[in-house]
Amino acid sequence: MKTTTNGLTRKAALSCVGDGWARFINNLYDAKPNYVSVIQVKEKYGLLRFYVSSAPDWYFDLIDHYEQESCKTCEVCGKPGRLRTDRMWLLTLCDKCNEER
Q: What is the pTM of this model?
């Protein structure tokens, strides 16, 4: 995983989750204050997790927003999806991507 003095790079963060959530990651990086370090990005229990160092409240609110949006957005393709609990690993997928897996 590639990090800099400001934490995880955008490219590294994008590689941590499916392409369907790339716009969430990009929006969070675009809004990120320069002094905030991204510590970790991952999928956990079917949802996006975006961990940062200390940050202003508004940025934590933005993170919360995109984490909540991830439970309604297919991680694979970005179309509307839902949390799939009928499999061994929880994932948020659209019907098509769920069928293909």
A: 0.90
Q: Are 37 and 28 in contact (CB under 8 A)?
A: no
Is 99 inside any structural domain? no
Q: Is residue 80 part of a domain?
A: no
Q: Report the number of distinct structural domains present in the chain.
A: 1
- In contact, 19 and 78? CB cutoff 8 Å: yes
Burial call 56-76: b when 16+ CB within 10 Å, e when fewer? eeebeebbeebbebbeebbbb
How far is 44 from 78, CA to CA, in rounded Å? 17
Model pLDDT for residues 10-50, shown as the tens digit of each residue: 999 999 999 999 999 999 999 999 999 999 999 999 999 99
Structural domain containing residue 19: 3-71
